[in-house]
Amino acid sequence: MRRIDKVYYQLLNNFHEFTLDELLSKQGSSAQEIAEKLKIERSNVSFELNNLVRAQKVIKIKTFPVRYVPVEVVESIFLKKWNLEDMEVELLEQPVDHQKKQTISTNPFELMIGAKGSLKKSISQAKAAVLYPPNGLHMLLLGPTGSGKSLFANRIYQFALYSERLKPGAPFITFNCADYYNNPQLLLSQLFGHKQGSFTGANGDKVGLVEQANGGVLFMDEIHRLPPEGQEMLFYFIDQGIYNRLGETDHKRTSKVLIICATTENPSSSLLKTFLRRIPMTIHIPSLEERSLKEKIRLTTFLLGKEAERINKTLIVHMDVLNALIHTEKFGNVGQLKSNVQLACAHGFLNNLSNKNEVELTVRDLPDEIKQDWISSSNNIERSKMISEYVNIKTIISPVVEDEMTKIDDDLSFNLYHLIEEKVGILKNEGLSETEINRYILTDIQLNIKSFFNQKTFQNSNLMKFVEDDVIQITRDLKQVAERELNCKFDRKFIHFLSMHIDAFLKRGKQIDVLSAQETDEIRHTYLKEYQVALIFKNKIQEFFNVIVPEIEVIYLTMVIQSIKSLEENKRVGIVVAAHGNSTASSMVEVATELLGETPIVAIDVPLNVSPEEIVANLTEGIKKVDEGEGVLMLVDMGSLAMLENQLEEKTGIKIKTLSNVTTSMVLDTVRKVNYLDLNLYAVFDSVQKDFIEFLDKQADVSGKKKVLVSICTTGGGTAKKLENILTAIVNKVSSEPIRVLTVSSIKLANNIKEIQKEYEVIATAGTKNPKINAPHISLEVLIEGDGERIIQQAITNGKIHSGNGPIRSNIVVRELCEENLRPHLVFLNPYHITTILLEWVQNMQDELGMILSNTVIIRIIMHTALAFERTIKNEPIAFPEDEEIDDKLEKIYGKTEKTLKPIEEKLGCKVTRDEKLFITTIFAEEM
């Protein structure tokens, strides 16, 4: 009999004739218990048990020690099928009746650290909003990333249950607005649901989040990412309490929902004023830096208590550890503090494995960067005196026990301490010394804490911005192949890494070989199983995309599979992303780490007012932070930053390579290669450079015509196409001379702009980056907001504005954007004709009111008015809020709105209601 079968049958035998109470009390058998009965090494038993978990035959209960129980035993005793997606659980519990409603007996706000301090005002506001008659006030939570807005929203919901403003069991629904930022139709479907057949892909009726949240709370995170049309949809629902599913015209639905929004941005600049007026309560959530020392200590000790609960041991924490954790936290981020606490506890657990009852945390257990910061600080004595008012030289911290009704689910879906114990056992069995084991495990701890803590649920919508849908589709199939052939389970990171690898290969167009023949032979023989799986991948990719997959690509696929499969972490090339602007670099790095997990990467944002000395200092610090001994690749946006390479090498003593014209796609490609291809600095540099330069070279467009407008965009994708259409329309309007619009990517602009000038007379450029040549440049902002169209016309006509066949004041930019945005929403009206009519009407209104509106406002007015006519035709007008004050100023503007709209109403044969016109009037009033 095989060893795995012996282990399984022994486990079955352990629960022979068990009752429900006995099973729930014992919670399963440990690896040690089975090892003693079978007289097999515990590490080997643990290995086979985990294989049985992956085979979905055994459930893993993550107590301490870890316990296991066969699925068939649980199904027999519970008298119901086990959900095979839950092969690892925190505790084996009898299935509960989810219809049973439970109540909260303790005020949830009183449980929050800072309830009588930094959060006192926030809690007071939240209580007032929940208790406000008749149904509470909608709320907006403001605060930096990681300050606890989601937790606070959850506490608001619990308080509403506690105060009986919501019925027991009322839903709490969370929605992240960033997930559907660029897809209004899908956003509408998510919020309000859709009817079968309402759009392509709507294969059945869908219940929206508003309907799911009926009688409860809808928490909308990152509300600043909700586009204006989404905000309008929402405030209509707030006003009326009535909505339709997408595609429904004959069914009015109602829902009673308390809405809580959250944002890190300034709401006055990121949200519509009309939307903000419907969210009457704004609540500030303080950052970690804004909290008092006492609160920081309480927060840190609470997080330590949570780790003590997970370890199931008492912690003895030295004062210096608390000192370092509290005072080296610079990010205003409770999440980062939590990660640091977990790292320190994991180190301490490893150093105290022989102690069964307690774990002592000293300075040696701190993460290296925190330890060095603490050692080099001159303020430690003064800080220790301050802390000593609240803690002892050694503080004893017991496991935290929380009320199940008010407990917030933990972020981590695994128990790191069980993983440490199992690995130590395996490595000891392999004959490694304690020093070698500690070095290996500490590296593994660093990997697991950072990647698992930062890894939220991956969103395919984010991935699809960079990878084609068909690539994701085949990668899902390849994941199943790999799991079957290698007899293991992969998480969703497999989809992200492999899809990006395949996408890069398809775009690259030809192999880029950075491995020697000796290295490829070694990979084939060392990872034979993975290589055989890669050959299957090759056949499927060739068949699916009708391409030739060369042998070197099979080798790369082998490396990717092995890297994802392996738990061992090697030293990697560090990555520094530096770009001008307040958050350009941070945004790119945030996307990369969200999609591809933790990696040695840092963002250096370079605001325009920062001195050169500060830039060098920040880059030096960033390079040192990410260097793991393999050198650092700098990805920068301008040549000026690239010129610092030699200076930074001298200051840091670290080998550096630099690539200019960074984009999010380049950052993603670099992170993927660093994490999963195990290449050195020069190989990563060479591979990324070749991938992007060769891909971009294919985009060059050559024409024999003399004059050209250059359209500049980051990627040459959708935005570039729209910009090209707008510029072409302007050319057609004012010039009979053939003038070509040439679209180029800003990534290659610096290298190719001189070549463009040799072939063409560049009369103007427009787009995301100024090439700084002797021709006018119009940014996207100016093109949409201001005089961009006029400047381009003057450049084409040598300063003479030509009206063409249409009105002089016809606005091509506004027309193009309005038509495109109205097209998905209009059924009865023609987007082209209604835009033409309303453009002329807006001009009349500007004349009547003696004002000049920006393009952004004009677009908003046309969008709103066109949709008002559409709603009138459908007999679905919206009502103006009864509590909204209508003063003399508004009435005066209303009179002009009604007068100027009358000819349009007669032309279209429908009369817009007074309420709809008041909404339109409000937009004009806001701009006066």
Query: Into which percentage range does the β-strand content fall?
Result: 5-15%
User: Based on the structure, what is the oligomeric state of the protein chains?
Assistant: single chain
Class by SSE composition = alpha/beta
Shape: globular
Largest beta sheet, briefly?
5 strands, parallel
Q: Which stretches are poorly predicted, pLDDT < 50 over at least 5 residues?
A: 97-101, 447-466, 509-514, 694-704, 800-810
What is the average of the pLDDT values? 79
Instruction: Provide the spatial order of strands within the biggest beta sheet.
Output: 6-9-12-5-13
Q: With helices defined by DSSP (H or I, 4 residues minimum), what is the helix count?
A: 40
Q: Tell me the number of strands.
A: 24
Gap from first CA to last CA: 86 Å
Report Rg: 31 Å
Description:
It is a single chain. This protein has 928 residues and is of the alpha/beta class. Helices cover 52% and strands 11% of the residues. The strands form seven sheets. A five-stranded parallel β-sheet has the order 6-9-12-5-13. A hairpin with a 5-residue loop joins strand 2 and strand 3. Mean pLDDT is 79; it is low at 97-101, 447-466, 509-514, 694-704 and 800-810.
